[in-house]
Model the fold of this input.
Amino acid sequence: MAQQQHLYLVDGSSYIFRAYHRLPPLTDPEGTPVGAVYGYTTMLWKLADDLDKAEGPTHLAVILDKDSQSFRNEIYPEYKANRPEPPEDLRPQFPLIRDATRAFSLPCIEEQGLEADDLIASYARAAQREGWNVTIVSSDKDLMQLVGEVDGPNGPARIDMLDTMKSQRIYIPEVEEKFGVAPELVGDVLALMGDSVDNIPGIYGIGPKTASKLIAEHGSLTAALDQAPEMKTSKLKERLIEGRGDAELSRILVTLKEDCELPEPLDDFKLDGVPPEPLAAFLEKHGFTSLLRRLDAGKGSPDRPNNLNPVKQETASDKGAPEGNRQPMPEMPAVDRSAYETVQTIERLEHWVARAHASQQVAVDTETTSLDCMVCDLVGVSLALGPNDACYIPLGHGGSDMFAERPEQIEMSVALAVLKPLLENDAVVKIFQNGKYDLNVLARNGIEVSPIEDTMIISFDLDAGRSQDGIGGGHGMDELSERHLGHTCLSFKDICGTGKKQIPFAEVPLDKATEYAAEDADVTWRLFQHLKPRLAIEGGTKIYERVDRPLIPVVASMEREGIKVDRARLAKLSEEFATETARLEKEIHQLAGEEFTVGSPKQLGDILFDKLGYKGGRKGKSGQYSTDQSVLEKLSGEGADIAKLVLEWRHLAKLKSTYTDALQAQINPDTGRVHTSYSLVGAQTGRLSSTDPNLQNIPIRTAIGRQIREAFVPEAGNVLLAADYSQIELRLAAHMADVETLKEAFAAGEDIHSRTATEMFGEVTRDTRARAKTINFAILYGISRWGLAGRLEVEPDEAQAMIDTYFQRFPGIQRYIMETLETVRERGYSETLFGRKTWFPRINSKNQAERQGSERAAINAPIQGTSADIIKRAMARMMPALEDAGLGRVRMLLQVHDELVFELPEEDVEAASPIIEKVMAEAARPAVELSVPLGVEIGTGASWDAAH
DNA sequence: AAGGTCACG
DNA sequence: GACGTACGTGACCTTG
Done:
């Protein structure tokens, strides 16, 4: 049987734009910009390399746009009228794309009056008719219409897509995920939503969400438009009726022309696998030396100096680039996992350690039995000294039932004794990705690693907020590798499997384990070379060196300390909560007249509003009643006893499940304490976040909840000490916005909310002070009249009047807000007093809700972020200050944004308190001189509750 | 996996 | 004229 043919159609035009934005602005030896061409060339190379693979191409062609005019302009003159001119340094690269394609001896198709998309569609269909498979190399959403399968002469022939930037295959499920409908209906969705880039009108006011919902519901565009008159009265209905013409026009514009005449026959696209003659000359001419080396099959040859010249980049000018990483990048050979060494003898280990000493810079990664660094065992260590120059030292593989024989390995204690002097050597920098984890693992094995660098933290300090919906925060290694190195790492799943079939890393055969583990070190090393120079160029050095980098070992040590919790006390509370919730549940069922799941907001809503007939509105997309606290409180105030009981039930159920039950389960069997994990990159503003368990949200606001704090206790003979910054964010706002009245009030030690009440309402009462407090917070969070109105239960007009009064009484605030927004709009990021950047990619969004959300976050970020910087500096200085004073027994345990919790011998309290206070109060200095004092309140006691 | 709810600063 | 309206988090529950 004949081999299944597989045609790859490369959407060259769209690729080059994306490559331009993602790659550094490199120039070739003649000074021609070639960054995008380089990206394009490597992509072609990768595809050609896949020639013999199962999914690889047998035929390939590159399709380009000839010019911007097409038959669509005849139908609709405004088509693509909004397209901005391509950037200055991209224009000269277009002809080079053709050169590059020719250098590979690949066909390059373009046709007057036809867009690349139409040619691609026509070729794809033609090939499909022949029974071929087709892969469209593009991520253009318009092309997703083509994805799918038909029966060809020799069985099914499918069309899929490949996004080489994300290394993602796009088939029916991916299209359905993106559009919520099958590929055949994508055109209908596109017609409704329109496209601002191509200037396709769509229906005004309908975006991707509404569009896919409508099509999914009605089955087609025509059906949705036809049924509009029968819909219930709404804005959407009107829009559908009025926009019918626009939608029908858009439907034509987004339809791909699938019957273009083919300029060249399909058979001409056959790949022959012979390295083309002109390629070397092309690579040589443009200084693509690493590719040239690969062409020479000189794998593993030493690095030669690179011919490509990075262009100096002004940081302020790259706001438009989605990922914006447009800096010089040393060119490196592609990752070659076969180059890694498995170190199984002491001689080889000593050899690597000696080389690491000599190079003074080594990337390190540890492999363990679990993600929890406080319970895991060490399984192996990998080192990298350069690209592909990496090894894996297995230490804990095998030994279980499945592996009767332990593979040859160096004895753990022997290997650690050899590694320890290297890892503790002041003169050798150890590079990690998320080093806090490895620091804890190694510390538990008797090694105090120092000094360290951390690519995850560097990435955060450069790019916080930039990955918009990034899963995992956007600073994980796999993501960074994709983004900066264009390399896909082996995933843990690839090695260990998933679900029930998952095996522990310790049972992975050594050859596989080496590929995975050494690659991690290799990639970390490469990322460091790529990211570290950016710090200096983009102004990130200060925050990294002065705030975040010194904090890593400090936070690691806090995690290892943990905090003692009184298990018996929690158990008793759990029991009490259990009886009480059971009692409440019965009463609730009685009032409801039936049994139902009280914990189900859906069921509760139906009971309250349908069955019992209380008034309350439906909410949002799900069409479900809202039953949150504010709703229930309102009902309760109107005499609905059931609402009051549900509130009580929820309060107790929450405390039980989230705290009294969960915390008991989190007690570490070895230490008897609870060890949280802090994320240093969790919050875009620079705050820490806490997980497993979250110790930053232990109850304090209610008396019942505070009982949980009573279970956080010191060891015998010790006390807990809590030190809080008082009103730090308002103080910082007063300083940053330069508000004289507020600064004076803080200097005089006044109650700031009372002072605000005086300024705003002329008198201080319980009510005016409470209102003033709300307004003060509203200012910090980026105010809107509606938001404030909701909180204060007044009309928006009245809220606006208060905002006006506030701005008037505290001149400076309004200016701060305007100036902050202006700079964020212009540069794309906000900055704290210590230079921490937070990016706001949606600040200029055309979607109002999105834009306004970004605006509020941008107003808050410098304040919240500066506060985070300050407490981080205090934390980094705390233990040295205490040790200098002979107070080495004091242990710092927890951080809760503006609070630090310590455990110390009772007799040290007197000496330690003033030192702790001073370190915290002085933490901004000398980098920043604040015009307000930082107030610190300290308390001690036999529990965390008592320390407040 | 998502949405709702609620714990904290 | 409608949208949804306070910033930053994480955990648990129910439901699809």
Q: What stands out?
A: Residues 403 and 799 of chain A are 70 Å apart (CA to CA). Chain A has a mean pLDDT of 88.
